[in-house]
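To whoever picks this up:

The parser on our side crashed when reading a file containing two proteins. I've narrowed it down to the boundary between the first structure block and the second sequence. Both blocks are reproduced below exactly, byte for byte. First block:
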Amino acid sequence: MADSYRIDLERGTGGLVTVLRVAGELDISARDDLSGAIGAALSRGGVVVDLAEVTFLDSEALGALIDGYNAARQRRAEFRAINAGGVVERVLTVSGAMELFGS
């Protein structure tokens, strides 16, 4: 994992979802780690990605989120991205991903 971002997994209350608390700049270098964390979380159930501390989101990281969303749909599992703000919220809104992720 790079120094420019952090991904922490936390079991949600009730044990039905895993919360990924993501921080920092999510760019091409974060894609594989983000995809891996989402995949690991999906193996245990639903996923909520908390973007409150994300300061940058590029198309590669957005792609990882969309891939995670699609994987969750195939498993009929929950997938949400929450607490996006600033430029991250703008990227999600402009791309249409905000509607997919139930933000």
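<<boundary where parser fails>>
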Amino acid sequence: MGTKSDAIVAARVPEEIKEQVNAVLTKLGYTPTQLINSAYRYVMEFHQLPFESSALKPGKRVLDSDHKHKLAEELDSLQVCTYDYSKGGTLTFKEALAEKRRKEYGAKP
């Protein structure tokens, strides 16, 4: 399983948490070593902890062009329910936003 180049990682974990997590890992068919290796690979790839989220951190966020494009695609495909069944019961996000702006502010679409 291991090689001579494997390193041992030591960490302090409350005993109760260790026991509970080990029980879950056993049910899932994994070992603590697999969990630690997975966590290390995640941090190596994404440069953050698996549970970190930029949405939870205060401050300004900067999206790169790939994220902006993906977000725009998701918003374009998003359907919003409406009570105006003459429009088929749904609008795209852009249509709903334009209609709301027009009604609220007299803005042109």
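After patching the parser it read the second block fine. The chain has two domains: 15-53, 65-105. The chain is about 50% helix and 5% strand.
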